[in-house]
UniProtKB/TrEMBL annotation:
Cofactor(s) listed: Mg(2+)
GO biological-process terms attached to the record: nucleotide metabolic process; purine nucleoside triphosphate catabolic process
Keyword hit for Metal-binding: yes
PANTHER family xref list: INOSINE TRIPHOSPHATE PYROPHOSPHATASE (PTHR11067:SF9), INOSINE TRIPHOSPHATE PYROPHOSPHATASE/HAM1 PROTEIN (PTHR11067)
Superkingdom of this protein's organism: Bacteria
Protein name: dITP/XTP pyrophosphatase
Length: 211
């Protein structure tokens, strides 16, 4: 199976590490925006849904480079806050995408909320645009709760606050090995791998048959 070029439409290097690790078994060469010297290329994420934002990023990057484009958007949805921060998760504490400010604002908003009312879930939506312009969408959800304080030095974003269902430790404490098996992004990427592997395999079969 011939290797293909896959470009991740994110400037978040923490996400890049996660995604490269989970997708490493695919017959593709994976590049980030930084690898292609496109760090300055940004898209305004003003969509009303995660899918709108992901599609907007994917389509914009498709105009710049050739290959398979993968763009994602992730949100943290807290029940007690009527779904906030949601699509604004990355800039909840300000436009500078500061992890500490985001976490501190979330803790402040939930200051008087008891543990049984701190339910939340992470959702990741991934848009894939193939070389011919066709596309598909996958998503993953991880349910859990918001802790009362930051715990753990692993991960990024809200990981030190988010306690996945079935665990008593935050993503920040559990580490990347466990997170990459149970997280929202891991679930979405596993679906992506399954679909993309089938596409790559079918394409390779067609190439052989056409020779």
């Amino acid at each position: 199976m011939a290797r293909r070029k896959l470009i991740l439409a994110t400037g978040n290097l923490d996400k890049v590490v996660e995604m490269k690790e989970i997708l490493k078994d695919l017959p593709v060469d994976i590049f980030s925006k930084k690898d292609l010297e496109l760090e300055e290329f940004e898209v305004v994420e003003d969509g009303k849904t995660l899918e709108e934002n992901a599609m907007k990023k994917a389509m914009a990057l498709k105009e710049k480079v050739e290959g398979i484009i993968i763009a994602d958007d992730t949100g943290l949805f807290v029940k007690a806050l009527n779904g906030a921060p949601g699509v604004y998760s990355a800039r909840y504490g300000g436009i500078e995408h500061d992890y500490i400010k985001n976490n501190n604002k979330l803790l402040e908003e939930l200051k008087n909320v008891p543990i049984d009312k701190r339910e939340a879930y992470f959702k990741t939506v991934i848009v894939v645009i193939l070389e011919d312009g066709s596309s598909f969408v996958v998503e993953g959800v991880c349910e859990g709760a918001i802790g009362f304080e930051l715990k753990g030095d692993n991960g990024f974003g809200y990981d030190p606050l988010f306690i996945p269902k079935g665990y008593d430790k935050s993503f920040g404490e559990l580490g990347l090995d466990i997170k990459n098996k149970i997280s929202h992004r891991a679930k979405a990427l596993e679906k992506l791998k399954e679909q993309l592997y089938k596409i790559l395999k079918d394409d390779a079969h067609e190439d052989i048959c056409s020779k």
